[in-house]
Prior knowledge:
alpha+beta; Alpha-Beta Plaits; SH3 type barrels
Amino acid sequence: MDQGLKESLAAFDSIWRLKLITIAGIKLSLGNVTIALILLVFATRLSRLSVKLINKKLILRFVEDKASQTTYQTFAFYGCLTLFVTLSLTIAGIPLTVFTVVGGALAIGVGFGSQNIVNNFISGVIMLVEQPIKVGDVVEVDGIVGSVLSIGTRSTKIRNADHKVFIVPNSFFLEKGVLNWNFETTIIRSTLDFGVAYGTDTRLVENACMDILLNTEGIEQSPLPYVFFTDFAESNLTFQLVFFCDTVKVESLAHVRSHVRFKIDQKFKELGIEMAFPQRDLRLKMDKTIDVRIKS
């Protein structure tokens, strides 16, 4: 063999065996670390491929609920990832006892600045197991209202009515008050208030509004919508419409309420029902009479 080639191989071998670090008496070489990194890259890809196979062969067949499917897919991914990472390290010749030392170092790091990361991760696991919210639910948390797009192990994505996507830390859902509009059902109650002028036939208003509610797309007929005559207000007779919508079938409650308002405006014009507006009666009290003259 050529002397130059032998020298090159010897140099490569010395570099490959170069000791990078010693942990608890275990020496890690450049070769070990390189093989481990290569195998870890493949471990991530193999985990994703395995989850696709598990999802197709098992999860989709035996689990109907979409939220539960997401939960099983997440745990399947991390389970496969743990398995492949362990195999990768074993093949690379890196003993798992190294992690007893590394784990202690990580624990110190957690104590000094990684509490939020660990907190959000644990919160994500709890959310995936208990499922207080699911993908597709309409929720309100920390002033954000929208539908849940995805639930990860660190954060949850929520899209509001303006199609803006918010990334909310999972810990918020366990530490703050959360309103889940779809916790047990997708049927949500909505209301609409308005006033008509004094002197209006209230039964005519009731019948007109019920006709609108029973014939507006997106409004559920069970439970039935209804009309409340709520108050004799200062300048109007106040009514409240109460109806129910299925959030799966409608784009948003705001769209349904808008359709109802358009129909009310059109119907009231046809029936001659006057919408109320603020009115004031002004009385002047004078100590002396006012001399009023009309000039022709």
